[in-house]
Amino acid sequence: MKTRVIIDTDPGQDDALAILLALSADAVLDVAGVTTVAGNVEVAQTSVNALRICQLAARGEIPVYCGCAQPILRPLHTAEFICGPDGLAGMDLAPPRQAAQAEHAVSFLIRELRDSDVNLTICALGPLTNIALALLQAPDVKAKIDRLVIMGGARDLGNITAAAEFNFFVDPHAAAVVFNAGLPITLCPLNVTYQAVATLARLKDFDPRGAVGGPIVSMLMRERPGGAALGGDAGHPMHDPCVIAWLLWPELFEGRDCHVVIETAEGPTVGRSTIDWWARSGLPTNAHVIGTLDADAMFARIAQSVGLLDAAPFRQAKALS
Ligand code: BDR
Ligand code: CA
Description:
alpha/beta; two-stranded antiparallel ribbon; Inosine-uridine Nucleoside N-ribohydrolase, Chain A
């Protein structure tokens, strides 16, 4: 049976590869919808980007719901300095033919969870604003969530401040709500996603001539602003694809259950995730935190999976359906 998922996202280059990976894994993942949030760029642009990515994958039928334009309390911080003015620098995607749905992302999350015959997994690739608001507005939906798989936080240093990772820094209050919700969580923090750098060697299996492979390679071959000086290695860290890859190939990842707490107080550590890796606090665990992954194997499998999106039978079948 397929795993039914909602992808909550702020595309964003690494979000783009994550969404393409999820859509390529059609045999395993049933994508109920894509919900967008402000993060890497403003929410109007993340919504356009989600539509462009679904269109690139010949999956224009996937509904996209526009979500929160602002974090719960803090002013919005965006990351055009990394991902370019439209959030998808290097991909050069066509404008979307479809529009986003009229329904707000938070309403969709609640409605879909309530109405679904099966429990869902939520893949959280951006600030957690939409998800926190859905949990606060309709706590009953928790019963319908199998798991939240989240990219966010860091076991050591951050990427947007010395202390904080971008997604949790943008909306630390939302992250605190989610980690206090008592739900099963898998967390892919920065210290693991920095192992997932798209090096030249790891890009060799992507098809630069493919309708989908081409924009991926072009995006990932683009020089990374700031380079390795911003952490990780030369090449773009593919943070968000780790979330989808964990769902598809958990055997490539290792982690442990930990207590995680998010700093919401303003100051130099706002947005920091304190991950009790060594269980020093004695507090109950609230997340399965990934520590290592086999990144070479992950990239080889991603290339193979997204390669399916370029295969003529797939594109024809989707065009006809
Ligand atoms: C996270 O922040 C965003 O810029 C990326 O898309 C990823 O979700 C990494 O810190
Ligand atoms: Ca993201």
